[in-house]
Each structure stands twice: as C-alpha cells, then as structure tokens.
Design a protein that fits this description.
The protein is α+β, with helices and mostly antiparallel strands and 694 residues long. The protein has 22 helices and 22 strands. The strands form 5 sheets. A 5-stranded antiparallel β-sheet has the order 2-1-5-4-3. β4 and β5 form a beta hairpin.
C-alpha cells in the first residue's frame, strides 16, 4: 500500500505484549544481583554468626523459592510470551495479506478517524482522486468528498450511513467533480477510538453507460411506438413482456391490460401452431413471416401479417421472440374486391370470346358459300361473262377470301384464349415441318421471283403440334415474301446448338423500331402493305405468338430497317420418356440394345400398380405395355392416362402373344396406337419406338 497500515495495526494491538517479559527479566535480575552482592560483602566484611545465618537463610529461601517461582510464575509467563510472539507473527502475515488484497482490489480503500482524517489508503484511492500515494496520508476526507464531511464528523450521522452504499460526488485534484460510489464500515480502534473504512469506486463510465442505455431505450421506445405495425416481445413462456401503442389499438386494450398475458389469448386457436413454431430453435434468428388472425377485445377477428424473430440465449437456446404485426384487413378487403373484379372481367372476357367465336362461326359459312358461288359464276361456260365482269368477280372473290382469312384468324385466336384449341403434342422432324410450310407457299415466292430455301437439317426433333407450328411457319414465310423485293431471298433454317428453333430470314424492308414493342399484341398490331401492295389482317403475328406460347416457347424478332428481319420460333427441348410395363423387364433390355439416337429415356415397371403410380407423378411420351403383365387392365391404364394428361393421352403400344386375336381386337377398339406381337425382335421394336419419338 502507498499509505501504510502498520501504524494502525500496532496502535490497535498496543504494547501489552512486551511488558510481562520485561518485568520477569527485571525481577530475576534484581534478585540474583542482590544475592551476589551480599555474598561478596560477606567475604570482605566482618560480621557475626547471626548475620551469616540470616544470609544463609535468605539464600536457602531463594533456592527453594526459585523452582516454585519457575513452575507457578515464570513458566506460565514464558508460555504467554511464546503465544504472544506467535500472535504477532500471525498479525504480521495477516497484515501482509491485507496489504496484498487491498492493493489488488479494484476499489479505492480509505481508513479515517472520527474527524475524517485519512489514516491509510491504497494506490487505487490515490489514482481515483489524482494524488500521489504519499500525499493522501493525513488529508481530510472532506477535501475529496465534500458531501461526506459531516458524515465523518458526526458519529450519529456516521452510524446511520455505516454499512450503506451511497452515490456521491468526488472532487479530484484538478478541481473536477465526478460521480462515485462509497460504502462505509465502522470499527473501534485502540482506546475505544472510532475509525471508518470506506470502499470508493469511480462510476463515471457506469453513469455514461446508464445515460447511453436510457437514451437508447428512449429512442427504442419512441421508434416502437411510432411504428404503424403492432409490436410485442414474448418471453420463452409466450408471455407478452413488451408491446407498443399500435398493438394495443389493434387489440382494443390498454398497455397494462396486454402486459403479462399469454400471446395465445390474442390469437385465433387455428393459428396457435404459428406461435409454437416461432418458439422453436429450428426457426433460427431470421425473420419468418406468417399470416394469422388476432382476437380483439370485442371478440371480432383481425387478419394480420406477423414477422417473427426468435431470440437465443448464450447457450443458443430459444429465450423468446419478438414480432411486428401488420393489420391487413384493408388489404384483405381489397383482395376480395379484386377477386370479384377479376371474376367479373374473366366472365366478361369469356362472354366476349364466345360472342366473337359465335359471330365468326356464323359469318364463315355464308362467306364460304359466297366464294363457292362466285367461282361457279366465273367458270360458267354455258353463260360466260364479259372480261370486265370476270375481273370484277375475281376482285370480289379476292376480297371475300381475305375476309374469310380474317374470320379464321379470329376463330383461332378465340379458341386459343378460351382453351378450346389445345396443341396435340407429339415428336416430329422439324425439317419435314419446314418443308411442308415451304411447299405450301412456294407458288407465292415463284410469282414474285424470290428464292425460297429450306436449310433445316434432317432429324431435328421437336415436341409440337405439327399442324399449329406449320401454320405459324407458313404465316412467317408469307410475311417474309410480302415484305421482300422481287429477286430477293427467304431462308428457313434452324440455328445450331441449344434448344430447337425455327428461323425465317428475309431481305426485306425491315420493321420500324417503334413497332417492335407491339408487334405481337392483339389489337395493337396493324397490318402494313407489302412491297407490291399486299394486305393482311393484322391478326397473323399475335396469333403466331399465342400458338408458340401454348407450346411453352416464345416468338422472337430481330430486325433492321432496309436490311431485313429474322423471326425465330423458340421451342422447349423435350427428351422422349418411354414407360415400359412387363414383368421381366425384357422391353427395357431390348430398348437399351437399339440405336435410336441420343436422348431417349426408358423407365421400366414390372407391375400394373407400379405403372399407375408412375403415371400419377411423372410425364411420359410413349407407353409400351405387355398384356401378360400381372394385373394388366387396359381400361384402367387408359383411364389413368386420360386423368393424368387431362386431354389427349400419350400414344399407347401393346405387346401381345402370338395368336391372341381377342387382345388385338380389344386393342383396336381401345384406340391403341400400335400393336406388336411376341416374340419382339430388336429391329421391329426400334421401328415402333422411332415412330413415336423421332
């Protein structure tokens, strides 16, 4: 310690320990010195026999009294002196331990008398008040803690504050005041003198932390209360620890009525599992959003969206959660109104589409009749028309055919939008599809002296409705011919790599940039005359886009004015999946040995039950079934195929034993696509698979 406590301890112990030993030594010394002095005088001084006898008697008394003195007085005194020495050593060790403890303690320690004079203190005390350790001795505590001066000067006041922990203001050497915490203990010193021990701690940082915490809590409370969403904090038992004003308004209760109650009291029973889930460790500390129904004080239900966050303790276990709850009753009402409006709009659209379909259908028949009658009139040899009349008739036929094409486009668009026209998907060679489209319009290219070529490689497999995609290709090629000058060229090709696609490139006038965004939108695309005045309906490209979308693909265009355009039909790549049904897996083995090209997947099943289960969860493009499979039922299999696809089922091929005429007859009656007779050989089986997948 900077300010020693040895003086205080010595003062408290007194000097009693040294006095008994000094007295014993003094008495023995005096007695023996007197004896030796008398004997010395008797040697040189003439005395009487009586005197010698008195001296002898005194000496004998001393010799007899010495052992008695030793046993009854000196020995206990020596033991007392030994014990006193041991106590002093213990006291010294205790003082050393006390000094070490006081030096190591994180608080300032001060020992004062009843007047407040500092008798002892540690280095931490000096550091707290900014003094050197030696400067603290003899200083009055009132200089350091002005508020405590009376406490040290008045024993009555000191008695009241002793043993209590107080927060006062201290005064440093530089004159700065600072908050401190002090605890005073009273003790009795030597001579019944009162001394006080004070433990002092500088709490400036704690006060700053408390102020920061209070400020943080104030901001937190203001933020939570300013939130428009309700807020609650739940402990691990699900009790509401905190809530904000918005939550109380949502529930129709006061803050006091909400606090301490279980959250399930305010949540509909069907959503109690949400609270349980949010209390689990597996929920994690991230935000989890749930929809739940709150129960208000008046018994009404309030739909809310709750964002929960789990709070974990130091061991990583759930210690509660907090949530923000948003009133979505207005959103629910708007959602209901939107559903009603959507339903009304869909009904109106269906009614409109049906009306258009009916009108177009009713108009188509008379237009077909008109075209047919006009053709008869023009070709009538018995009553031939004049050249001028024939020219007018041809003009009327051309206009009527254009109107008929418009009606057909309207019918197709209406069927696609209402779902009446569904693609009948199957695998097809894209080269053959492009060849058919090119052959359909080749006369138009010849009439305009254009070069029309098909550059699609053979064997390009696509999964489409061939008639619909051919219609799209024909429409795109017609447009390319329409907007290409005489002597130009139109190419039909498939770009290499990636998913299958069919492209039509022309060397025509191109498309203006401002028309690109509305090119495939029905009602916003207007027909533009071709290079020789060819007219269109404006429904062609939107219809093509609808057809391609129905296939799961997309119709794209790239164009540059005066340099031509490229229209691309992008189709999804589909890998043929074949389901084989036979007890021994023979069909799958034969299929594995055949060379059918890349990308054909075989999924063998050995029983009817396995096949039905596979059809419920997977999609197949061809079913090959052995009628001798255990539990085979053709009607059940057909029903499963129709139920899975909701429309046109995938092709079904049956493998029957030779001589089963009744099975072949049943197969033909059940719309089976193909029948193979056992034993199945690899070449014939490969041809069957190729027919439906290549």
């Amino acid at each position: 310690m900077g300010i020693t406590l040895t003086r205080l301890s010595r003062h408290a112990a007194g000097t009693v320990s040294a006095r008994p030993l000094a007295l014993v030594i003094l008495v023995l010394t005096v007695v023996f010195m007197a004896e030796f002095s008398v004997m010395a005088v008797m040697r040189f001084w003439p005395v009487t026999n009586e005197f010698h006898q008195a001296i002898f008697d005194a000496t004998m008394v001393t010799l007899i009294a010495a052992p008695t003195l030793y046993f009854f007085m000196l020995r206990p005194l020596v033991a007392l002196i030994a014990r006193q020495t041991e106590y002093e050593q213990r006291l010294e060790r205790s003082e050393e331990n006390a000094r070490a403890v006081i030096k190591a303690v994180g608080e300032g320690i001060a020992v004062t008398d009843h007047e407040g004079v500092i008798l002892a203190g540690n280095d931490e005390l000096a550091r707290i008040f900014g003094y050197a350790p030696h400067e603290m001795a003899g200083m009055n505590a009132g200089r350091l803690i002005p508020e405590a001066l009376l406490a040290f000067q008045s024993s009555a006041l000191a008695g009241r504050v002793a043993g209590r922990r107080m927060e006062l203001e201290g005064l440093r050497r530089d004159g700065a005041y600072f908050p401190l915490e002090i605890r005073v203990e009273e003790a009795v010193g030597a001579g019944s003198e009162r001394i006080y021990t004070a433990a002092i701690r500088d709490i400036s940082e704690r006060r700053q932390a408390e102020r920061a915490l209070r400020e943080s809590e104030r901001k937190y409370r203001e933020t939570v209360n300013a939130a428009r969403s309700g807020y609650w904090l739940l402990n691990r038992m699900g009790m509401i620890v905190e809530s904000n004003d918005a939550l109380c308004d949502m529930l129709g209760l006061s803050t006091a009525e909400v606090a301490g109650r279980h959250a399930t009291e305010f949540v509909a029973p069907e959503h109690h599992d949400v609270l349980e889930e949010c209390g689990r460790k597996e929920c994690g500390t991230g935000h989890r959003v749930f929809g739940l129904t709150l129960r208000r004080a008046d018994g009404t239900a309030l739909p809310a969206l709750a964002s929960f966050t789990v709070i974990l303790d130091e061991q990583g276990e759930p210690d509660g959660c907090f949530a923000f709850l948003t009133d979505i009753s207005e959103l629910k009402a708007q959602e209901a109104r939107l559903r009603e409006a959507k339903s009304a709009a869909e009904n109106a659209t269906r009614l409109k589409d049906r009306f258009i379909s009916l009108v177009a259908h009713d108009l188509r028949a008379p237009f077909v009749s008109i075209v047919g009658l006009l053709n008869l009139v023009e070709r009538d040899r018995e009553h031939p028309l004049a050249p001028r009349q024939k020219e007018l008739i041809r003009h009327v036929i051309k206009s009527t055919e254009a109107s008929l094409a418009l009606i057909d486009d309207l019918l197709n668009v209406s069927r696609l939008q209402t779902g009446a026209l569904k693609p009948m998907m199957r695998f097809f060679d894209l080269y053959e599809l492009a060849a058919r489209a090119v052959g359909t319009v080749s006369h138009m290219a010849t009439a305009k002296h254009l070069t029309l070529v098909n550059e699609v490689p053979k064997g390009t497999r696509v999964y489409v409705d061939p008639s619909l995609i051919e219609q799209v290709a024909v429409n795109l090629i017609i447009n390319a011919i329409k907007f290409t000058e005489r002597g130009g060229s139109v190419r039909v090709f498939s770009p290499p790599g990636g998913a299958p696609a069919l492209c039509v490139r022309d060397e025509g006038v191109g498309i203006a940039p401002d028309r690109m965004a509305t090119l495939f939108i029905l009602g916003k695309n207007h027909s533009t005359p071709g290079t020789e005045g060819e007219k269109g309906t404006g429904f062609g490209l939107p219809l093509c886009a609808e057809i391609v979308r129905a296939h799961g693909g997309a119709l794209e265009v790239a164009s540059e004015p005066d340099k031509g355009s490229v229209f691309t039909i992008r189709l999804p790549g589909v890998t043929p999946r074949v389901l084989t049904i036979d007890r021994h897996g023979t069909l799958a083995e034969i299929l594995a040995r055949t060379e059918l090209g890349p990308g054909i997947l075989c999924h063998p099943r050995q029983t009817m039950e396995q096949a039905i289960a596979a059809l419920e969860t997977e999609t197949f493009h061809l079913i090959v079934a052995d009628v001798e499979t255990p539990g085979f039922d053709l009607d059940r299999l057909n029903a499963a195929l129709v139920s899975r696809t909701g429309g046109a089922p995938p092709p079904l091929a049956l493998v029957i034993p030779e001589g089963w005429a009744h099975a072949a007859k049943a197969a033909s009656a059940a719309s089976v696509a193909e029948v193979a007779v056992k034993p199945v050989e690899a070449h014939g089986f490969a041809a069957l698979i190729r027919k439906f997948t290549i």
